[in-house]
Amino acid sequence: MSVIRSARDRVARSITNAAKSAAGTRPDAPARGSEFWTRVRKADADRNAHRWHEAEVGYEAALALEPHLGGYWVQHGHMLKEQGRNTEAKTSYRTACAIGGAPEDVLDHLRFMLQQGYFCPAKGVLPGSTDAARL
Predict the structure, then answer these.
(1) Could you give the 3-state DSSP secondary structure of residue 85?
(2) What residues are paired with 134 via a beta bridge?
(3) Could you tell me which of 7, 44, 51, 71 has the fewest CB atoms within 10 Å of its CB?
(4) Of 19-23, 44-48, 66-70, 106-110, which gets the smallest average pLDDT?
(5) How many domains does the chain have?
(6) Could you tell me if 97 and 127 are in contact, meaning their C-beta atoms sit under 8 angstroms apart?
(7) Residue 18's domain spans which residues?
């Protein structure tokens, strides 16, 4: 869990990348062949083999290097959800949205978890939601 907190702290420091992106310039992206992509490829292979815990750890390791890449927060959330760790999955999904990820990428997953009774509703309507589903 400390890896996640550390990664989230790094997200806060990566505002410069978000500002560059909003201004139309490309933020620093991980270089091909970098340690980040090595970790992602391993996590993807673990995910494809249904090794949920190993994939979770792999995505955490990648996110520790590049915490501003929201799509991998979504993948991290999926791995947690597969293990029944739904409160943690919700946090990863919300992190993806908070750093600028497209809410529609996670809305269906959050709605499913809510419908299954995995967590109690909290205040606020889901970003981009047209229904009254609350998380």
Answers:
(1) coil
(2) 125
(3) 71
(4) 19-23
(5) 1
(6) yes
(7) 2-115
